[in-house]
Write a structure and sequence with these properties.
Elements lengths: L1 E10 L3 H12 L4 E4 L8 H4 L3 E2 L12 H8 L7 E2 L6 H12 L3 H29 L10 E5 L4 H5 L2 H5 L7 E4 H7 L9 E5 L3 E2 L2 H14 L3 E3 L6 E5 L2 E7 L2 E10 L5 H7 L7 E10 L9 E4 L4 E6 L2 E9 L9 H14 L10 E9 L6 E3 L7 E5 L5 H17 L4 H4 L15
Parallel strand pairs: 1-2, 1-12, 2-9, 4-16, 5-14, 12-19
Antiparallel strand pairs: 3-8, 5-7, 6-7, 10-11, 11-12, 13-16, 13-17, 14-15, 15-16, 18-19
């Protein structure tokens, strides 16, 4: 086995790891990316590809636990926690519960909004610079409601998000149906986010992998990390099946698998895999003009020139890789309820993947306690695609010593040290 020195080793070749590689290479750093499968094989592949400042409000909010408990016996619920003995999950849920209050919800919304706004602009610039053909379009996103009670929970969202630089308009049912002819009659209202965008995520990842290679990054597929050695607060060696790497800096960007690697490095990350599903079809004749979120069922609809995807839902079932037919059927049922022409026939692809979920729904970006030459970039939940460019820029600035402490404090891995009143 060969021993090789390197400047920056990035562990993980999904959208986060590749974005970090792109910006670090542009800053003059020599980079190797170690990916255990193929670039983008995880959650970067089958998500709905929406770029969504609209999603600044986090998952933990007042009232969400009550809904989740009711849904535990409903396998097709938008948020599903299968009853089972899992101490790590229940410990995570206790931390999650601690954040289901107005103050933490407002704090997380502010932090996420800054990341999302910065990333949306940076990602569009990256796509333009590289010429990646990923069907990027900034055509906005529309929340669609069929229940008339939607205003009680979401009616003040435009006013809440406006100070954070996120534009939104509330529409009545008639306006929503006029603006989006693909919807069935019976819509009670909608919220339109004109600055959101969408793209085909698997093509973005494939294109970015080609771009980083062309820029001089060594991108090694089929290179799982099998061992690590730490000495005097530094990661000294990273071992893959064919090489022993001796990096100056290490970036950990392996999404939902991050806690396993963190434990081997001597620290803990309270991240749970949140399983999402999607189904991809041929584009229907009457396709939505823009990305949709069917809010009562929490199903996202994304249309591209050559395809149509239904996705989302959240299932906390560990690393169970089985495709749950009940969850897939829920996607189809939501489309049939809302759309004049839902996906017909067999899908081109049925997919599931694990999102890295933190208890506060804020990413973990920064240097972990006790390690001088490591940076963590994970915990993006359902927004890895949306937050990818801003994360890459922050990781670059950390390694260059230019990241402002005030910006990093809410994202720091050390915030999860258990203390009274904190999680």
């Amino acid at each position: 086995m060969q021993t090789r020195a390197c400047d920056v080793a990035i562990i993980g070749g999904g959208i986060i790891g590749l974005a970090c590689a792109w910006y670090l290479r542009a800053a003059g750093r020599d980079v190797v990316v170690l990916e255990r499968e193929q670039p983008g094989a995880g959650a970067s592949h089958g998500n709905c590809g929406t770029i969504t400042p609209s999603h600044a409000p986090p998952l933990p909010e007042p009232g969400v636990l009550g809904r989740a408990l009711k849904w535990m016996l409903q396998p097709d619920a938008p948020l599903y926690i299968p009853p089972r003995f899992d101490p790590a999950l229940w410990a995570w849920l206790l931390r999650f519960a601690a954040h289901c209050n107005r103050a933490d919800h407002a704090h997380a919304t502010r932090v996420r909004a800054q990341l999302l706004n910065d990333s949306s602009a940076a990602l569009e610039a990256l796509i333009a610079e590289t010429g990646i053909d990923c069907a990027f379009e900034r055509r906005g996103l529309l929340y669609v409601f069929r229940q008339p009670t939607w205003r009680e929970r979401f009616g003040d969202l435009p006013e809440t998000l406006a100070p954070l630089g996120i534009r939104a308009e509330a529409w009545d049912g008639r306006r929503t149906e006029e603006e989006e002819p693909a919807l069935r009659a019976g819509v009670s209202g909608g919220i339109w986010f004109p600055d959101d965008a969408h793209l085909r995520p698997e093509r973005l990842v494939a294109g970015l992998a080609r771009a980083v290679r062309a820029a001089g990054v060594e991108l090694r597929a089929g290179a799982p990390v099998t061992d690590l050695a730490v000495r005097d607060g530094r990661i000294e060696t990273v071992v893959t099946p064919d090489a022993r790497w001796q990096p100056r800096e290490v970036v950990l960007a392996i999404g939902a698998w991050s806690p396993r690697l963190a434990r081997r490095l001597g620290f803990r990350l309270p991240i749970q895999p949140g399983k999402g599903y999607s189904m991809t079809f041929d584009r229907p004749g009457l396709a939505p003009r823009r990305a949709l979120v069917l809010k009562e069922s929490s199903v996202c609809v994304t249309t591209w020139p050559d395809g149509f995807r239904l996705g989302s839902t959240m299932e906390f079932s560990g690393f169970d890789s089985r495709l749950n037919p009940v969850r897939l059927a829920a996607l189809r049922r939501a489309a049939e309820t809302h759309l004049r022409e839902p996906g017909a026939g067999e899908p081109q692809e049925a997919w599931s993947g694990w999102r890295p979920m933190t208890p506060d729904d804020i990413p973990v970006i920064g240097r972990p306690p006790g390690l001088q030459n490591a940076v963590v970039a994970t915990g993006h939940g359902m927004l890895g695609m949306s937050m990818s460019a801003a994360t890459g820029l922050l990781v670059r600035d950390i390694l260059l010593g230019e990241a402002p402490a005030s910006r990093l404090a809410p994202l720091a891995p050390g915030r999860f040290t258990w203390a009274a009143g904190k999680g």
